[in-house]
């Protein structure tokens, strides 16, 4: 039965039965106090204030023993009201202080030692007992549930709580990053679709990297264009406001990090300089404009001076191998000097299908290039909390893996910096992954909405999720048993900041816009 209905039936039955209720009725409406205003010592209201007492003491020296006289009588009401404190503690633990019925009863119950308050305390006990029975009946370790009053505050519908109440969060909460995790087939991509559908209704542009080509059929439903990487090219032209010199020089360390050639960055920088010089020469000689592409960088590496001997030869080989992996792994994507305009690409609802990219370096470079381009393009944007654009990385572990190698213990990567800048300019990153513990640490650190859909099975992952959601040991053990589409999660911008347990909204195949 619905939790609230259960409580209210119990309450109604006890209202009829309780003879002491007459007093409450006869005395007319009783004061409604919010629980947070009520304390166990609320009965001291009629006594003189502390200031008054001390003023009197100062005026009348004969009262110098004021503090010790009649101590029993004066302080009796200050004795902690153990019975009420106990009830109040459980109300808070179960987050029932937001329930209007409990608030009303608490206002009557708190003062103590009146017939009304004993009656109200009895009713509160009944409510708490109903909650305990419900805990046992459901065996849900993620209870207590969030109160409706807090859960529905927001305009973005994430999922339903187990009692059917929709979990709404402010759309702007997305600027603080979102991570969706769960096993294969858990329902992550479908949840992404559900979120993007709402964004499209609100005219917030989003860009999705779709490595499995799962979203092609959803383009209409999402109000997005679908483009496959095989059909476009991306050149190396700088974002607005930057010169080639500035752009390529800042891009090379990022590229070196992806290729795992930290000592080869110098070679990449020199190759970039050669390319820039060649371009200027070409423009001067022919009078025609041209851009550069990644293939130009690869072609320039053998012309870097003094690289055929010693260690530099080794770095050169690593750089050449890495670049050729990117180029062969992406078809013509990075071989053309006149690529697609990224400003247009990133300012509309677009799904970029990248199924054909299978090489790890190639996938990482594609994601990095797009994110870094936007990062530089947003350099002069003023900081904002409102959502401007959403970048979605489905199966993000393909692009944003935790580093291996000698610097793998470092908890940040260049992505951390990129994400931080992007989000301060209103760009949100939503990423999904089956294996969160292998994801880039920056992605984990900057995701303040974390949803696990369908549970996790690998020990390292459940451990990580336990830390990220601050779960108890009992809750950690429950993670592998979550069913498909069952969700646990938190959202930092939600009015209810604790864990929510529920299930995803039903989104039927091929976007036949139906939901529960
Ligand atoms: N909200 C939903 N409404 C209706 N069906 C769903 C929903 N979520 C999941 N499903 C069903 O489960 C299937 C798998 O879901 P989905 O593709 O979202 O899983 P996933 O977590 O993205 O898996 P993977 O990690 O393999 O990409 C869907 O094809 C669909 O049939
Ligand atoms: Mg998926």
In words, what does this structure look like?
The chain is an alpha/beta fold and 516 residues long. The protein has 3 domains: 3-41 and 80-138, no CATH class; 172-232 and 342-499, P-loop containing nucleotide triphosphate hydrolases (Rossmann fold, 3-Layer(aba) Sandwich), CATH 3.40.50.300; 233-339, no CATH class. Helices cover 43% and strands 10% of the residues. The chain is built from 20 helices and 11 strands. It has helices at residues 3-17, 21-26, 50-59, 71-75, 82-93, 100-109, 115-138, 148-151, 188-201, 219-222, 244-259, 265-286, 294-300, 310-329, 342-345, 360-377, 414-424, 441-445, 459-469, 473-478; strands at 156-161, 166-169, 178-181, 206-210, 225-228, 350-353, 389-393, 427-433, 449-453, 486-491, 500-503. Strands 2-1-11-10-9-3-8-7-4-6-5 form an 11-stranded mixed sheet. Helix 1 (3-17) runs antiparallel to helix 7, helix 11 runs antiparallel to helix 16 (360-377) and helix 12 (265-286) crosses helix 13 (294-300). Mean pLDDT is 83; it is low at 9-76. Bound molecules: adenosine-5'-triphosphate and magnesium ion.
